[in-house]
Amino acid sequence: MQKNILHIHGFNSSPQSLKAMLSRQYFEEHYPEINFVCPQLANSPNEAIAQLTQIIDAASNEDWYLIGSSLGGYFAHYLANKYLLRAVLINLTIKPYTLLETYIGEQKNTYTNTTYQVTAQHMIELKMIEQTAPTFDDEQKNNYLIMVQTGDEVLDYQEAVDKFQHCRLIVEQGGDHSFIGFDQKLPIMAEFFQLS
């Protein structure tokens, strides 16, 4: 059966981000039989989720694995619950509808040079897809690998640790929101996905 990795980038990011490119390079080199997918997400949360579900639904009889970073981790949590998939969530945002309120207004994506509007409606859309984390006796807890660094300057890493306390956690001292040394974690992610 065809195996696919869906890499979901964060807010104001793109498939050209360092983590996305390192992931693509690693999996193409070490697992060339795996299809690596990393779309440029729409700016509206509803449209982004529609994009992602359409990608999975188009090959619903195949195996899917999720990698999500920051806001992409929030989206990946939603998709992992919806489709019962394994997901690696990196420096993920727990309450983006609160965090991104300060970004309401005009934004520019430096990767794509696209100017767009973040709206109050986007915060409502984010709140609508919020998921609860697996409990101790929930087998779903084995579907998540959470990777955070304590030096994350954008998010409070402890929120992710608290929410996903019953899941597999990698908590590294220092680092930052980009997750320093991300490439060194790719073999651990491949092992978590049980690709071999």
Automatic annotation (TrEMBL):
<dbReference type="Pfam" id="PF05728">
    <property type="entry name" value="UPF0227"/>
</dbReference>
<dbReference type="InterPro" id="IPR029058">
    <property type="entry name" value="AB_hydrolase_fold"/>
</dbReference>
<protein>
    <submittedName>
        <fullName>Esterase YqiA</fullName>
    </submittedName>
</protein>
<dbReference type="InterPro" id="IPR008886">
    <property type="entry name" value="UPF0227/Esterase_YqiA"/>
</dbReference>
